[in-house]
Amino acid sequence: MAFRLTYFNKPKIALALTNANFVTLVIKKTLMVVDIRELNERIQRESAFVDVLTSEMDKVIIGQHHMVERLLIGLLSNGHILLEGVPGLAKTLAINTLATCIDAKFSRIQFTPDLLPADLIGTMIYNQKQEQFSIRKGPIFANFVLADEINRAPAKVQSALLEAMQEKQVTIGDETFKLPNPFLVLATQNPVEQEGTYPLPEAQMDRFMLKVVITYPTKEDERKVIAANISRQGMPKANIVLKPEDILNARNVVKDVYMDEKIERYIVDIVFATRFPKEYKLEKFAPLISYGGSPRASINLALAAKAYAFIKRRGYVIPEDVRAVCLDVMRHRIGLTYEAEAENITTEHIINELLNAVEVP
How far apart are CA 178 and CA 141, in angstroms? Predict the structure, then answer.
């Protein structure tokens, strides 16, 4: 038996549906609600390790919650991180602790002006007994690589590292070797003492998913650091709580975090506002921005927002997730003109203004 249901939205305008269509419509809506609920429950189960991992790292890293959270975002999004901060802010300790907690291989490379690409990726060594060349792999063959003060090495060494970051493989001689998985590069820059450095070109900076600026700890956190270092027991040690395979599985789950089309449009609007500020009623920034974010900025902003939602134990992305990671994703992807530098305008200031101007869905 078929009958019609009529919905009146406006006077003299009616929408008629057959009973079969109506039932199908209701079923589709119900399925969507169930899927989101099930996805949210699944994310809450799968992300339970985040609290365990964060708690384990907090035993060693006092304060610096922002840095630890960004390390997890990069790890879950398969993206590399550029850290900028003065020496002594636990950058090396943080990634070393993360590698310990995940039972992964860690290597630290101190970049210096006399460093060669072979010191990074490896080289071929002649074996006199066997009368043939053998390959000796470099320190880049690790799950977590700390490239300390990356801007102090020449362009060839920087290019060798960034090629490995992008391709996830290294060629030595005639052979190509895949890098371990997961593979995360944490590069550091010192914002002071820029004499004798080799600043990363814009195209290479764009390959880092996040640029995180590390600040000094609070007074209370620094007091805790002092107490931990001078105590008889010494600094606590981190324990293994995960395996590298768990991170690879978590990355697949992060991709399943739901992102609505409205959020995608919001991300595109943010990036386009850096390219065409006049279209978003930000004419004052047009002479201050030399270039805006690339399509890689949109991709990384979406991936970081999904990872942030995962860390917060949610199966869907909300606008606040995008805003929370926007500064770290975008700060190194906006070029400033001489006028901006003369007026002491920073990329952080521009990004905050853009976020206030772009309409939130």
Answer: 9
